[in-house]
Write a structure and sequence with these properties.
Elements lengths: L1 H6 L1 H28 L12 E5 L5 E5 L10 H8 L5 H30 L6 H13 L2 H11 L6 H8 L11 H29 L3 H9 L4 H29 L2 H8 L10 H10 L5 H28 L5
Antiparallel strand pairs: 1-2
């Protein structure tokens, strides 16, 4: 370390501001959150002292007998056993939500990327048009899709009425409600996947396709044996990023389904939010949610990386 610092001191000097910013904005809150998860901190016991004003304007302070205390693993036990919150319901919802969204992101993104990688008229226009959803803020898109699926005034139910079908109460059933959020998130997330995969397609050597075509390979054979292997370095990265982003995607669930019906479409990040900001604000419970979410994603990333390593991919 010392040898590296003496030889490359200028590089360390350039990295230092980034390290300081990361330490203040990421590592300190992370450590603080982990420590809070082992306490019973909430808005009623967050002060160590109780101060009161007396006649004359003076202020007297006394130790708070109900101040937050260290409780060990109690928060984790309460969450995992269902004593607090609906962790397992939210966990299942999160898995369904993440798998469905990432699968549609990748499938639709790949199809659009393959299409846009070919020469045809107005290709530039279609590229711009398909990227537009990516530029829309997620909360704006969430409000729009909430209106689209509205039971009384929504566009979809209006179309159903127009063709003589009964309107659907999208937010009164768990799976139909979750379906609306998945549709909204797929609309938002496909452009990123499309752009990333399109860049990967354009990096594949065209001579491989020409050689395969001369050898009599069909379009499907060229896709399976050249396109998919050639996209593997890109696809492995975007799938990992897409999984992490979707797992933590807060606005869509919060603004589209609003947890309806009766909290049955909550995911882990919205559960953490409600613990921290609704009712008696339970900061320790929210911190415990955060640690569990981080742990799940770290385990997933580690397993995913090992799977890629076994396939010969470097990540």
């Amino acid at each position: 370390m010392r040898k590296s610092f003496d030889k490359h001191w200028y590089a360390w000097a350039m990295v230092l501001p980034t390290v300081i910013v990361l330490g203040v904005l990421v590592f300190y809150p992370l450590v603080r959150g982990v420590l809070q998860s082992f306490t019973n901190l909430n808005e009623s016991n967050q002060r160590d002292e109780i101060c009161t004003k007396v006649l004359g304007g003076a202020e007297t302070c006394e130790p708070n007998p109900d101040a937050a205390q260290f409780v060990g693993l109690d928060n984790y036990v309460d969450i995992l056993t269902g004593a607090q919150g609906d962790f397992w319901l939210q966990f299942v919802n999160t898995l369904v939500w993440t798998v469905a969204c990432v699968a549609f992101h990748f499938g639709l993104g790949l199809g659009l990327a393959v299409m846009l990688n070919r020469e045809f008229r107005f290709r530039g226009f279609y590229r711009v048009a398909l990227i537009l959803p990516w530029a829309v803020p997620s909360f704006v898109a969430a409000f729009a899709w909430r209106f689209i699926f509205d039971e009384r005034f929504g566009v979809i139910n209006g179309a159903l009425r127009a063709i003589g079908l009964d309107p659907v109460s999208w937010f009164e059933q768990r799976w139909t409600s979750l379906f609306t959020a998945i549709v909204a998130n797929v609309w938002l997330g496909v452009p990123f996947m499309m752009v990333a995969l399109l860049g990967g397609l354009q990096s594949i050597n065209g001579d491989l396709y020409e050689a395969a075509e001369i050898d009599g390979a069909s379009s499907w054979q060229r896709f399976v044996n050249i396109t998919l292997p050639g996209l593997r370095p890109v696809s492995s990265t975007v799938i990992l990023l897409g999984t992490i982003w979707t797992f933590n995607m807060f606005p869509i669930i919060f603004f589209v389904t609003r947890g309806q019906p009766a909290g049955e479409t909550e995911i882990l990040v919205t559960g953490a939010y409600r613990a921290a900001f609704e009712g008696i604000r339970d900061y320790s419970l929210a911190a415990t949610y955060g640690v569990l979410i981080l742990s799940i994603l770290v385990v997933y990333a580690s397993v995913y990386r090992r799977m890629l390593a076994k396939q010969g991919e470097v990540f």
